[in-house]
Amino acid sequence: MAKRPKLTKNQRRKVSENRAKRLSAKQDELKDSQLGDMQNGTVVGRFGKHADVESQEGTVHRCFIRRTIDSVVCGDHVQFRPGITDEQTGGVIEAVHDRNSVLTRPDFYDGIKPIAANIDQIIVVSAVVPELSTNIIDRYLVAAEDVEIQPILVLNKVELLDSDARTYVEQALQVYQDIGYKVIYTSCKSGEGINELSAQLKDNISIFVGQSGVGKSSLVNQLLPEAEEAVGEISANSGLGQHTTTSAKLLHFAKGGDLIDSPGIREFSLWHLSKERVTWCFKEFRDYLGGCKFRDCKHIDDPGCIIREAVENGDVDEQRYFSYLRIVESMDEKRPAYSKPT
Ligand SMILES: Nc1nc2c(ncn2[C@@H]2O[C@H](COP(=O)(O)OP(=O)(O)OP(=O)(O)O)[C@@H](O)[C@H]2O)c(=O)[nH]1
Ligand SMILES: [Mg+2]
Ligand SMILES: [Zn+2]
User: Fold this and answer.
1) Each residue of 253-290: pLDDT tens digit?
2) Which domains does the chain possess?
3) Residue whose CA is at the smallest distance from ligand 1 atom 16
4) Residue 212 backbone phi and psi in degrees, to 5
């Protein structure tokens, strides 16, 4: 295959502007006569410039999105007009209803991006392979606390643990249970925990988040075999997941409840939050907020820091505290130059 020429920043902008122009021309072609009556629907898929909208009757329509609309994500309740001439692809989303909740993440290039809307549970999926990282878990917990949506922790692939490793992992995750988070151990191979997870998802609108390769889509297939989500091997070279799921998708449980499978995120940054907000998002720190000697306490080595004191007394878990320091430190490194520190 011929090598693609490298485009300059300006050329890239031009290409993307032209693409947007072509798209809007296409939208303008969507004449009134080609569109059916306005209806309410739910966004069940989102890719590129399109969204799949499910009508109240349960039919799915691929729709363009009016340029005036800021953003559309899975779980959004929208007003749309289906295409008449081409029911499968010709619709258009005209408006997005107010969201009850929205999970967001900062993107280096695009700023703060919504991931999913109107969810009431965030299922943070981790696995013992590629690696168990409590720091990554803590990042997702911060994101969930920030948007005030209940997080649940799932640790997948537990059949790979021998009994010593299992004890170690259970100890590492006990701290989360101690501060009030639910932890579910699962395996798509042995079936452990699938019923418990299924009960947790019933009647809720949940989203699976977590790194690529932890087994989000495999869990979806266990819970909803008809979903037939694509599953990808872990790369033999890097030991990492290969970003198999590329767009979010909302699925229904026959017994009630919805589940959104989302693409793995390589690096869940949190630079869009203020450091004070991150502190608040470590929920076991909340009791101590306002109690440090200095109002601008960084909770590192400041004298009279009662969070640090709580760590030393064993009232706050040390691992979580170090994780907090790592997150706060990384916020300055990862923040793009255009975004002011807070
Ligand atoms: N041993 C073991 N492997 C699992 C388990 N669950 C999933 N896997 C494997 O993990 C790999 C990645 O699974 P996926 O379901 O594609 O992971 P994902 O989280 O959806 O990844 P992305 O879509 O890339 O974000 C596949 O090879 C699965 O077969 C499990 O419980 N045990
Ligand atoms: Mg997947
Ligand atoms: Zn302090």
Assistant:
1) 999 999 999 888 767 778 889 999 999 999 999 999 99
2) 30-96 (2.40.50.140), 102-261 (3.40.50.300), 275-334 (1.10.40.50)
3) 231
4) -65, 135
